[in-house]
Amino acid sequence: MMKLEAIIQPSRFESVKDALREMGIEGMTVTEVRGHGRQKGHTEVYRGREYTVDLLPKIKLEMVLPDALVEKAVDTILKTAKTGKIGDGKIFLSRVEEAIRIRNEERGEKAL
Amino acid sequence: MEGAPVYSRRRSGERCVPKISVAERRNMASAVRKCSWLLVLALCAALFPASSLRAQQAAPLTGATSPSSNAATPEVRPETQKAVNEKLAQLDQRVTAAQSAGDNAWMLVSAALVLMMTGPGLALFYGGLVRQKNTLAIMMQSFAMMGLITVLWALVGYSLAFGGSGPVIGDFSHAFLRGVGVDPNPDYAGTIPQLTFMVYQLMFAVITPALITGATAERMKFSGTCLFLTLWFLVVYAPLAHMVWGKGGLLNSSGGRFPCLDFAGGTVVHVSSGVSALVCALYLGKRSGYPKQPMPPHSLVLSFIGACLLWVGWFGFNAGSALAASGLAASAFVATHFAAAAAALSWSLVERIKNGRASALGAISGAVAGLVAITPAAGFVGPMPALAIGFMAGAFCYWMVAKVKQIFGYDDALDAFGVHGAGGTIGALLTGVFAQAVINPVFGAGKPVGWLDRNWGQVGNQLIGVLIAWGLALVGTFVLLKVVDLITGVRVSEEEEIEGLDISQHGEEAYNLEN
Fold first, then answer.
1. What is the DSSP string of B122-173?
2. pTM of this prediction?
3. Chain B hits for A44, Cβ within 8 Å
4. Are B70 and B119 within one domain?
5. ipTM above 0.95?
């Protein structure tokens, strides 16, 4: 099992979600987050006072996948989340030791 | 313009009603002589709904009879004459009642509109501009004035502002609203119940201290705010209102030592609150983290709604200051609207040039600045000067807020001084420039009013009024802050400030979205 975390542009979220669902991924957790990588922020001006906003809004997708689906999911996200500009985000993969379904205590990939 | 209604000025000893010319009166009298009383009745009935006919001026028939018209009507019998007189007197009464009904309806609506400016108008406008953790605190400060000042007004406030005829402050003749009933007070508004006048003026007294909270936002104690604004109302507002509007007041435009034009409160409301706001900002010191830490408005949507409510409410504030549903009210209404629009445009334009973008906050701030600046001028200037005043006020207040504030480094958190102090001052001075007898012959028929009428000296009088308001606000506010500092303290602790005033002062939060 792998955990896939993807931080993407909010504007690409709908396409990414639809594409992942189409390839058979059933569950995901989505969070609205703020952050920055190499992308610079922007300035906002309120009554002549300038503020630099360097934490920009992003969407974080989290899903735990059976090993067989991981590469395909990564490909799908790369294809649909890319705009080609700085700020498109990142994907992180990590091993997951165990998964447990709370309702019936199933364990492992069955619980996903 | 001969024969057109002549409007008397606001808060003078006269009534704010059109006068019927001598020629009109004579016509009426001779008609009575010539016709049977039925015909007279028909004529009067036709005149009855005309709003320009004011019964107070239509003298009893016998009094208006001129010798020349007597000779032309020999056949009228005495009993017919008596019946006609009685009927006319009755009609007079009904016309008076009708006029009073019209004026009273408008003034009650105006009073409600002005209250709407404080809550929700100002509360939302300021509420959106603070950070999320201080939203309820700033709204509560406006709302507290609706409670506190109202009670004070009933006990002594109205009397201190509008009782007696001293040069500086009123007296206690109307304390506890003694003698304030449905009968008009001919010193101020002769066609509406004094109760209406009293409650209308109350709404001004409510919003004025609330404006100051824009400068003390995000760091002043609630207890200190309430005590300070209570004292401020008694020491600064009431005397200033009496000086400018009260009978016998030093700055009253009719009969004052320095006749100062202030139609709806440029000096009384905006200069006084704005300058006091500056003193408060300096006395309290900067908010913790200012100016390094970003403190952007938490919801410009709230501010936007608030500003639009202020704009609408301002029609009651300015047009209502005619104290009658008169042509003067219409003139003030138009001037108010035009100035707001022009100032919104000019602030946006300057912003566009300076920053490359016209912001929503800029547009609404500009509109408020224009409304502030037109306040003293509303009933004295025509639509074109109103546009000019608005344009100047928008650009001037932008400069005060965006540049001057940063040069001097004071933390006027929500720009109460930059908009109300600066806008009120420039508006008061421009009133002296643009006031015209054609709009409001405040100094008497045919007498020049402002610079446009070649009465150069009026700008000087306006300056004196502004200086007195500045002086009283500066000194009064400083002394009162010292006193309040000793009793309750004025500023919250740094921990309380960082935690936010909503929790530290009121024990609640504006947004509990998770629950």
1. IHHHHHHHS-GGGHHHHHHHHHHHHHHHHHHIIIIIHHHHHSS--SS---ST
2. 0.83
3. 296
4. no
5. no
